[in-house]
Amino acid sequence: xxxxxxxxxxxxxxxxxxxxxxxxxxxxxxxxxxxxxxxxxxxxxxxxxxxxxxxxxxxxxxxxxxxxxxxxx
Length: 73
Hints:
- This protein is mostly helical.
- The protein is about 60% helix and about 0% strand.
- The longest helix is centred in the middle third of the chain and has 27 residues, at about 10-40.
C-alpha cells in the first residue's frame, strides 16, 4: 500500500512541478471562466452553467471549453 508524502518529503524538483502545474491549471480555469462570463450566450455551444461547472474538472474542463465551447468567427 502506498503511503502519502508530506510536502517536506518532496524534492525541490517535485515541489516545482506541483507549483507550476497548479499555476497553469489556475490560469486556464480563470481564463475560461472570464471568457465564459463575458461571452454572449449566443456565442457559447451549450448552456453556460454547464460549461462553468465543467471548468472545475481539471484539467480537461477549461481546455474543453476553450477549444469546443466557444463559437468563433
